[in-house]
Amino acid sequence: MLACAATLASSAQERHMPTRHIHTAPDSTAVVPDTTSYSVSDSILLPPSDKMGFNEWIPREEEFNPDPTRAVWMSALFPGLGQIYNRRYWKLPIVVGAYLGLGYATSWNNGLLADYTKAYRDIMDNDPSTNSYMNFFPPTTSESDLDHKWLTNILQSRKNYFRRNRDLCIICMVGVYLIAMVDAYVDASLSHFDISPDLSMDLSPALLPDSRGMKPAIGLCWALNF
């Protein structure tokens, strides 16, 4: 009777004792026990830890390293595209603004050049019906009241003036195009250049070889790091 009572007490104690299940990383060869038949009071679930075999994925930031050759070709393809490739977005309005301004100035000077060229051509011929130069004066102005020699000189000087301005604008546009290419190349080449303001200088004694004698000379060697 005593042995049977002890056996029943032991079985009852084992039934009410919590069972500890440790969850490990899934394995193709491991047999996963079926825990659907156990209640909360029958098992203790441990939180996953780094020692259980789980690998945490951490994204790695890659440092941007632009290619100078590619930056030059992209800038040659379209002005400002090399600056976008180098991620210097603040330079794009400068390049585009310079091109738009120079393009407008070229168009404006070219239009006035065409008007003064036509007026100069009309005043130099002998046809009285071609008088486009009178468009520069008010409608009440009479052609007989004008000095033709003075007007001819004025039209010629204005024609040369606007031709010169138009040619300068075209030259400046070519200059901006080349500067944008050079800037894209230099910016891509020096993208990882250290520009910190910290400067350091190292001093150390050194033996300087002397070509005139057998004994080396004693000197001081210094190096400037920036």
How does this model look, in words?
The chain is mainly alpha-helical and 226 residues long. It has a domain at 68-189. The chain contains five helices and four strands. The protein has helices at residues 2-16, 68-77, 81-85, 92-124, 148-189, and strands at residues 19-21, 43-45, 200-208, 217-225. It has a two-stranded parallel ribbon. It has a two-stranded antiparallel sheet with strand order 3-4. A hairpin with an 8-residue loop joins strand 3 and strand 4. Helix 2 runs antiparallel to helix 5 (148-189) and helix 4 runs antiparallel to helix 5 (148-189). The protein is elongated and about 100 Å long. The N and C termini lie far apart (93 Å).
Relative helix content? 40-55%
Series of H and E elements: HEEHHHHEE
Largest sheet data:
2 strands, parallel
* Quaternary structure state of the chains depicted: single chain
Topology, pairings included?
Layout: H1 2-16, E1 19-21, E2 43-45, H2 68-77, H3 81-85, H4 92-124, H5 148-189, E3 200-208, E4 217-225
Question: Care to give the gist of this entry?
Answer:
The chain has about 230 residues and is mostly helical.
Q: What descriptors fit this protein?
A:
226 residues, mainly alpha, two-stranded parallel sheet, two-stranded antiparallel ribbon, 11% strand, elongated, disordered N terminus
